[in-house]
Amino acid sequence: MNKPLAPENHQWVPTEDGSYTLFSEAFQEACHSTTGAKEETQLHYIKGCQIKEKSLKNSELNILEVGFGLGIGLMETLTALNDFSGSWKFVSLEIDEKLLQWFKETHQDHPLLKHLEWNENNDQKILSCSWDKITIDILCGDARKTLPFYIQKNPIHWDAIYQDAFSPKKNPILWTKEWFKLLKNSSKLDVILSTYSASSSIRKSLVEAGWILSKGDKFGPKRTSTRAKLVGESDPDILLQLSRSPVNALTDDNLSELLRK
Ligand SMILES: C[S@@+](CC[C@H](N)C(=O)[O-])C[C@H]1O[C@@H](n2cnc3c(N)ncnc32)[C@H](O)[C@@H]1O
Predict the structure, then answer these.
(1) C-beta 7 within 6 A of ligand 1
(2) 139: Cβ below 6 Å to ligand 1?
């Protein structure tokens, strides 16, 4: 891989599948598992959200990514949907404006991404491009503010959600019951939410927000991960394990307040 200079306050980290991830100084964490940034993304998000299967059934797809990072989720989605003849929209959420500017500048040779432009609408900064049947909108700012505002202006329902914030310890505000309620309320009934985390606290947040849980694939040193839907029954093993766990769901009074406004 021919790497550009890392963005400000980030360092490149090699991973075992030959791809690179970034370490964030602000969050003191790497964006991906060092077992493989690309493989982890393919497993948890492309396979975990059944992107290919959904593209065979639907003529339109709406995908939400929580945490844009260095854009591996977007790049892998572009590859997975290369033959998709329907229209699709990829919306991603990123608080670090410099990271988005870096992504824009380092993709000037890409046939689609070279069209990325900043748009500013009612105080919301969005890095976006539209080409043929593909629309990409990367919302810049705290996701708890940008997402509700975006949904209000662009009524949209998600087919797939890549829940890829930093870990619940480092980035708790994007793993709360209120956050998962917001995601649920803007999803289609057959949505799949997928995440690398299997922590009891985030699973409790999901259950309390009304999501139905199953175990996802293992990757690297992690024994399992989490998939969530809005229909069916949760895996009884997960419910039993949660009933025995002393940890609480994560909560966010600020988001409840914001959503009431
Ligand atoms: C694990 S990385 C995402 C990796 C990315 N999906 C990829 O494939 O490259 C998490 C990202 O979430 C962003 N983030 C953290 N808190 C946020 C917030 N409150 N709102 C929006 N983005 C946030 C971080 O800046 C970071 O880039």
Answers:
(1) no
(2) no
Q: Does ligand 1 lie within 6 Å of residue 96's CB atom?
A: yes
CATH number at residue 246: 3.40.50.150
Q: Which atom of ligand 1 is nearest to the CA of 21?
A: 9
Global pTM reads 0.98
Task: Find the domain containing 70 and state its range.
Answer: 37-260
Asked if the structure places residue 131 within a domain, the reply is: yes
160 is a domain residue: yes
Cα–Cα distance, 63 to 65 (Å, whole number) = 7
Ligand 1 mutation pick, 94, 163, 164, 255, max ligand atoms within 8 A of CB: 94
Q: 244: which residues sit within 8 A by CB, 6+ positions away?
A: none
b/e burial code for range 179-208 (CB count within 10 A of at least 16 → b): bbbbbbebbeeebbbbbbbbbbbbbbbbbb
Whole-number Å distance, alpha carbon 127 to ligand 1 midpoint, is 15
Q: Is 142 in the pocket of ligand 1 (CB under 6 A)?
A: yes
Of 257 and 52, more confident: 52
pLDDT digits (tens, 9 = 90+) for 110-162: 999 999 999 998 789 999 999 999 999 999 999 999 999 999 999 999 999 99
Phi/psi at 110 (5° precision): -80, 135
DSSP strand pairing (212-216 vs 225-229) = antiparallel
Q: How far apart are the first and last CA of the chain?
A: 46
The domain total for the chain is 1
